[in-house]
Amino acid sequence: MTQPSSENIKLTIGARFWDDHCDRCPCDGDPELAMANEIGRSGSRVTIEGSPEQIETLRSDAAFYSDRWGPDECPPGLKRSAAATLKVINAHLTAKAKHS
User: Fold this and answer.
1) Where does residue 38 fall: left (phi above 0), alpha (psi -120 to 50 degrees), or beta otherwise?
2) How many Å apart are CA 18 and CA 56, to the nearest integer?
3) Residue at 62 is within a domain
4) Residue 4 lies in a domain
5) What is the tens place of the pLDDT at every residue in 4-19?
6) pTM of the model
C-alpha cells in the first residue's frame, strides 16, 4: 500500500473505469507499487490517492480507453467513464502547473 506523502495526489473519479482499471491492472511489477489506492467510495464515485507515477499510469490507461481508436470491445459507458477520469486527472495537472 502506498504511504501517504505530501506529493501524493488525491482525486475523486467514476467507479466504473476505476473498477475496470483495477481488474486489469495493466502494470508491470508489483501491483501495490503501480496502483493508486482507493480510500473511499460513495455510490458511483471513488476517491483514490497515489503517487504522481501511479496517477500517470491511470491517466495513460484512461487516455487509451477513451480514445476513439481504443479497444473495440469497450462498452460505451466504460469509454465515457474513462474520458471523465482523464478529464479529472488533466484538470488536476493543469491546476497544479498553474500554481507551480
Assistant:
1) beta
2) 14
3) yes
4) no
5) 556 899 999 999 999 9
6) 0.84
